[in-house]
Amino acid sequence: DVVMTQSPLSLPVTLGQPASISCRSSQSLVHSDGNIYLNWFQQRPGQSPRRLIYKVSNRDSGVPDRFSGSGSGTDFTLEISRVEAEDVGAYYCMQGTHWPNTFGQGTKLEIK
Amino acid sequence: EVELVESGGGLVQPGGSLRLSCAASGFSLIGYWMHWVRQVPGKGLVWVSYINGDGSSIIYAESVKGRFTISRDNAENTVYLQMNTLRAEDTAVYFCARDKFRGMDVWGRGTTVTVSS
């Protein structure tokens, strides 16, 4: 199985400051169709997950543009340009290239 | 409004069975891949199973293979997860989710399964 490793696991951030989460895969996420199926999800406390980013860098509908994704091959990053109070929660990367699909361990973002 | 609603969770003894349902509204399931994902409270997300649009392709996580069965009824706009021979480690909140671009773009609120004597 593809192992997804996130860092950091805990991320204290000051309001208005940027935040960055890294996700590394144990093997390339380039699919045979040429796409990279790397997703980012946000899970606020007590809520279901919500996808923010698909195929590395594409924002889902309604996702604020302060969220951005980047990366290639095996190294990926989720960046929040200016953290707001509503961004508190857990963030997960997930690869959909290989079966079984696998999630990272999660990164808990909190406000300092 | 596009929505997924899970049901069927509950308390069951080890070795028992449960059937989870995931009813879609606001869109037709036809053509969509669907997933089940579970989460132990306070822990991370774990992918469980997937089924393609017509049910011809199904994959399971190794931890549930041979015990869980995913299925779908497109006419009823519902996806199911039959869970047999349940173990304590199957205790979790189970989410169903719609696939778009090989990731989950719509999630339900989840249904809680507790396996305990």
Describe this structure in words.
The complex is a heterodimer of chains A (112) and B (117). With 112 residues, chain A is mostly beta strands. Helices cover 0% and strands 48% of the residues of chain A. In chain A, strands 2, 4, 5, 6, 9, 10 and 11 form a seven-stranded mixed sheet that branches. Chain A is globular, with a radius of gyration of 13 Å. Chain A starts with a strand and ends with a strand. In chain B, a hairpin with a 6-residue loop joins strand 5 and strand 6. In chain B, strands 2, 4, 5, 6, 9, 10 and 11 form a seven-stranded mixed sheet that branches. In chain B, strands 1-3-8-7 form a four-stranded antiparallel sheet, with no helix packed on it. Chain B is globular and about 40 Å long. Helices cover 0% and strands 52% of the residues of chain B. In chain B, 39% of the residues are buried. The mean pLDDT of chain B is 97. Chain B is mostly beta strands and 117 residues long. The chains are: A mainly beta (112), B mainly beta (117). At the A-B interface, strand 4, strand 5, strand 9 and strand 10 of A face strand 5, strand 9 and strand 10 of B.
List the helices and strands and how they pair.
The complex is a heterodimer of chains A (112) and B (117).
Chain A: E1 4-7, E2 10-13, E3 19-25, E4 38-43, E5 50-54, E6 58-59, E7 67-72, E8 75-80, E9 89-95, E10 102-103, E11 107-111
Parallel strand pairs in A: 2-11
Antiparallel strand pairs in A: 1-3, 3-8, 4-5, 4-9, 5-6, 7-8, 9-10, 9-11
Chain B: E1 3-7, E2 10-12, E3 18-25, E4 34-39, E5 45-51, E6 58-60, E7 68-73, E8 78-83, E9 92-99, E10 104-107, E11 111-115
